[in-house]
Amino acid sequence: MTLLIQKEIFSEDMTQFYVAETAQAIESIHRLGFIHRDIKPDNLLLDAKGHIKLSDFGLCTGLKKAHRTEFYRDI
Asked: In what residue span(s) does the Protein kinase domain sit (predicted)?
């Protein structure tokens, strides 16, 4: 959130980078079988190299069969 406050407006390239980083972070926890359920700027941290790290897994839940899109295709 601090970077967003400092910059006020991200360039298109910067926005594209952080959206991609966020998508990769979410994909990583999905591969581990979890759903975060509280993605917001306050829960996106930057490491020393500028990469996104997810935080605050308090609302996190396991990925169940009913959460997968394939479950709903035949309903």
From this structure: 1-75
